[in-house]
Amino acid sequence: MKLLRVGTAGSERPALLDAEGTLRDLSGVVPDIDGPLLADDEALGRIRTAAESGELPVLDPAGLRVGAPLARIGKIVCIGLNYHDHARETGAEPPAEPVIFFKAADTVVGPYDTVLVPRGSTKTDWEVELAVVIGRTARYLDSVEEALAHVAGYAVAHDVSEREFQIERGGTWDKGKNCETFNPLGPWLVTSDEVPDPQDLSLKLWVNGDLKQDGTTAEQIFPVGEVVRYVSQFMTLYPGDVINTGTPAGVALGEPEPKPFLRAGDVVELEIEGLGRQRQELKDA
C-alpha cells in the first residue's frame, strides 16, 4: 500500500494511493497514519479491505498539499557514511560499525514544502536517502531476518545538511543536521510487502535539473536489515520511528572547488524507485 497524508500543515488527513494511481480518503477508516496504526494489524487489514472494495471516497489532488506520510514521529535515527561510493568521494574510510546520529522529529516537512537555507549558511548540501519506518517495537534483535520483520515500510527522505555547521563548528554532526525543514519526507509510506528487496532500489537527485546523485541501495555498507538489528542493540525502536539509511555519492561536499552548495532559489528534486518523487524550492530562513 501507498499511504500518505494530505492537507494543510498540521491538519493533514490520511489517504491512500490505489493501484490505479487514484487518491482516496482514509479518514473514515483510520484517524491518521502513525506509529499506533502501523503496529495494529487489524487496522491495517481494514485499510486493505477498504482499498480492495474500491469504495473509498476519491480525493481531487489538484491544489491539495501532500504532507509527510507519518504523523507524530518518535525519533529519527540517521546512519552516516553508509555507501561505499559516498565514502570514496569524501575521502573517508568505510566505517567498521554504523555511524549513528540523530535528527529531531520537528525537522520533518512535506515532500514538496519549502526548504530553508539557515541564516549564515554557505554550505547547505543535499542527500537523497532511503527512510525505514519501524512498525513493531524492536529491542536487542538477533538477526537481519528478525529486523526486517519489524519494518512497516519505506519512504524517500531528503537529509538536508549544512556542512560548515556539521564539520567545522565543533562537537557532533547534529548542528548541521537539525536546522528547520531539513528532513522532507514522502510523498508516500510504501508498506514493506511492496518492497521485496530494499537493497535493490535506485536513488536519484537533481539540482536545478542537473542530475547529481544516481545510486543504488546495493552500495550500502550496512544493509537495511543489519542497520535495524544494530541500532536495536543500543536503543529501543518504536512503531513510527524512522531510520535514514545514508546517501550515495554525488553530494556537493564531494565535488571539486568551488563546491556548488545550495542557495535560495535552487530547486532540488529526488526520487527512489517505487517510493515516489520529491521537489523543493529553497528560500532563505
From TrEMBL:
Q: Which GO terms describe its biological process?
A: small molecule metabolic process
Q: Which residues form the Fumarylacetoacetase-like C-terminal domain?
A: 75-281
Which InterPro entries does the entry link to? FAH (IPR051121), Fumarylacetoacetase-like_C (IPR011234), Fumarylacetoacetase_C_sf (IPR036663)
Q: Which domain of life is it from?
A: Bacteria
Q: Which GO terms describe its molecular function?
A: hydrolase activity; metal ion binding
Give UniProt keywords alphabetically: Hydrolase, Metal-binding
Q: Which SUPFAM superfamilies would you find in this protein's record?
A: FAH
Write out the transmembrane intervals.
none
Which Pfam families does the protein's record reference?
A: FAA_hydrolase
What family does the database annotate? Belongs to the FAH family.
Name recorded for this polypeptide: Fumarylacetoacetate hydrolase family protein
